[in-house]
## 1
Amino acid sequence: MRAEQQSSMSILVADDEDSIRFVLREALVADGHRVSEVSDGESALDSLSSDQFDLAFLDIRMPGCSGLEVLEKLRASGSDTPVVIITAQNTMDNAVEAMKRGALDYLLKPFSLAQVTALTERARSTRALQEEVRELRREVSGVTTPGTERLVGRSTALLEIFKRVGKVAARNVPVLVTGESGTGKELVAHAIHGASPRSEAPFVTVNAAAIPNELLESELFGHERGAFTGAIFSRLGRFREASGGTLFLDEIGDMPIDLQAKLLRVLQNGEVVPVGGRDPVYVDVRIITATHRDLDEAVKAGRFREDLLYRLRVVPIDIPPLRDRREDIRTLGEHFTHRYSGDLAEQPTEIAEATLDFLENHNWPGNVRELENAIKRALVLSSTNVLSPEDFAFIGDSNPVGDEPAALDGIIRSRVEESLLEPGAQDLHRDLIEAVEKPLLSAVLAHTAGNQIRAAALLGINRNTLRKKLLEFEISVPGRGRNE
């Protein structure tokens, strides 16, 4: 019974012939599916707009809208419901039009029940694939709502950033936001979009470092149906999804060099060509990019196009690391405590003055993101309504300001002295490697938010080597648990 429930789909049958609806209904119900019926195009469109169907059979000729018109309006609304066009005429024009408008397939009258069953199975596979793609996109990128986050701080450096955001927001020029990971580059992009005339239009985010190179072109520019294996449907791509609004390209420094040339053409001509397509499509999109890399050095190394850098850096905005704007640590600490206290703490919670002094005395290599996560952790674990320095004991081993070289030197000296005192008691080289390499691996994984592919690239090793080291040092991957 459970298998039958899992295989059951909700299916719409739209045809003005009673006999066709009857045959399809009986066949589909016999296979365990739930079937709704309509006899004209307008009713089909209303049903598909108001209810969630796993599959629709649409007659090509119906009173009101034709099946092709219903399909076209459905795709224009953003729906990806698989559609089978039913036709009595096996012509090339019908087939081409059905496929061009995004149909799963077309069914020629008279048809066999085996054909109907085969199409429902294909629709099931298509829906499963779509869900996998959606899940991947949720992990690496997506359309977000500006205004849910904001820049917080009172430092002179941040005030200058606020001023620049205000000046550039109303002007449709590319902006390049630079800064270390966790400083708030995406929040700056949100602020620019939110203060611009495009604020009611989409704000679309793509992380160039988190998407495999072979998929990034399709993600940005879209693709035609059949352009490559697995391209069951045509896809608009992020540029066209952001039409009228803003496209935020994060980690632009990680974009492959061949794709940089295609991005340059979009910036020059305002046109995109989908993968597998021939005709360019005009797009009206404001481009904001961000990177933690030094793009000038990347240009010298041949990893980034100089002409593209000039196009992207019309207005540069650089966000200093948190250690260089320490007055913001206090403001952010209070902000995050008040923001998350209601959800994470057992009771309304404040942060003590001594605690803010304690937090100011740390480097925060992960910048604002690290501070935010530290506040969350303290709120969850604290048993009082005031966060004390003791609630942040887990950061006690992190290096105070300016102590990085001393800390590393101390580790080495300590291990050497232990080895001299107890010859043969331990492998000095192995001990030193673990003392230095383990925190390095942990820091890089934290920097990449657990993305092992990126971490391996930053470390200059392959992913298999990284995985072996994670096992060897028993390092937990952020968000995934130990070695995934």
## 2
Amino acid sequence: MPEQPSIYSLTLNDLRDYLVSKGHAKFAADQIFQWIYKQGVIDPQLWTNVSKKIKEDLIINFDLSVPTIVWNGLSKDGTRKFLVKMIDQQTVECVAIPAKDRLTLCISSQVGCAIGCTFCHTGTMGLKRHLSPGEIVGQFLAVTLWLKQNVGESERLSNIVYMGQGEPLHNFDNVKKATIIFMEDKGFGLGQRKITLSTSGLAPQIEKLWDFPPINIAISLHAAHNNIRSELMPINKAHDLERLFKAIRSVPLKAYRRITYEYLLIDSLNDRPEDIEALAELLDKEKSKVNLIPFNEYPDSKFKRPSNAKIIWFQEELLKRGFVCTTRTTKGQDILAACGQLKSEYEKLNLWE
């Protein structure tokens, strides 16, 4: 890792405090944020309204390098997957997902993941390390710059989902700080409803969400029976459904009117009539939204995707019971960019410099 801290790990207040501590003008922090995050200009020499002394100070004392995109793949549906290399050569994947009125970046919070969900390709990596706030922000910045240079000025990221590699709440403090940076009006200025954090259900960390920026929250539920959820998600053995929902009820909803419950549909495992009944009993229909995710198969996965007819039936049964329920459109499956398919496989690309 570099000796200098990443400038992209600093919130606006952090940068203001640093400048003041060095005898510089506090307001320059606002100008620097606008150059980096609004204008996409990361070379200090091009910051025309920032003093030479401040620029020299930052160049000496901070790492201004952006994570490197070493590979990208374009799906037939327009989804783009990026393999991003950090300064210590570790890599993560993130995915730009187009929709009618937005371009969402599915962002990673860790190199690998410690949760070990049996349906997830990332889980086969294990956890290598947390990402710093600057590396989380750096993914968004790197993809923003790549799109500007390779696609065009109009191709801009508008939303973030923490649904890439890693468990965001396992890296609570760094993800929190990155989120503050993303939401800063003088920077990217992403609104609270433009950012969604998905968690596998770390109950003690969910209870800390009162001290997190008020963004959208999604829970990876995937089963309404403890035995099935424990088979899919080993974390359920430590934080079972009773413990998980006790934690969820302890957190004020703040800006999110509903909590989204992600439910991975797997053939003959959790797509049965008794699963419908258990879900209807478990969830509060006034505060819940169910997002069905048909399983995305990957090499060596033991689970299978249900038929389209079963997926439609499952959604209709929940709608009949008064739930808000959607089915996620699978994006990027042909380049292993769909939900649960991300894994850093840099060594296979033969791209070492």
## 3
Amino acid sequence: MSSAEYGFFSRLLHRVALGSPAVLRATMQMEQNKWRKQPFDGQTAAPVFVSGLARSGSTLLLNRLTATGVFSTSTYRHMPFVLAPNMWSGATKSQQRQSDAVERAHGDGMTHSFDSEEAFEEVFWRAISDPKTTTKSAATLPWNAKIKAEDLAQFRLFMTSVIKAGSAPRYLSKNNNNITRIPTLLKSSKTAQIVIPFRNPVDFAGSTLSQHKRFLAGHADNPFDAKYMAWLGHHEFGPYFKPAGAPGVEPTDTVTPDYLCRYWSAVYTALLDVDSDRVHFFDYDAFCAAPKARLRALGKALSLDPAPSPPDGVHAPKEYDKSGISAEALDAAMKLHLTLQSRAI
């Protein structure tokens, strides 16, 4: 949600709650004290993590999986104290507002309301991370950083908090930054599964660049919105753009189609190297062509019965011009795309 949907005092509360790692950790500790003596039930929680590069259908997957009624996930009701969803929901229960669904800032037809599921899990990782890796000046997002055992234990408590605040037994998150920590997520639970959506690299580059320009323009006169995105760990585009630091990825001051195509190749090359039958690649373009069949395959992979149902009016993804991409980068990306398609569920 943008600042237009928040009043002055609400924005101030968000600044205090999300802008200070100390406040984040304090509220998280207060919440987690409730579950600290309860062992994490990984078999029941059976976490599913949706994570891929932006503009590849991850939000759509989050929505369709949540609609099954099987999963609990973070929602706008948990804002701004997203690390203490039960404590905050209880304190504000009598004052909670209702709202109609409105289109999100991306201008892509996806809508949200106060009850919508959203990508807030990254706030946890920001709370426990070295501040040097989460500031605007950090060049890239750390790739496969070592996570201490106590931090992993805290993450299990966070998942428990989200499940307790929800109404379903399994944990679900959509967090595109999770591509940088796939091994950690697999360690979080023996039942954890990862869904990695991808799309044609040319269309990824075109769509991401379009959003980058949109958010740069929108945030130029609205610093709160820019900070809000950074607090939530959304670095996919805009003034706080920060690429995932997969091997071969270089930071840049100028985002171009060629850079984004090379970035796509580096990230998905690294993700293909993950050796686990709990990692599932999901072809967004194939989904658009045959939504029921692709979601049926996803449901089988995630042990969902019945399978997720597609939304109404699925349409073909927009195609973008490849003229800004060098022949070398395009050739490498399209070969990799064929490999991903062969691996997709």
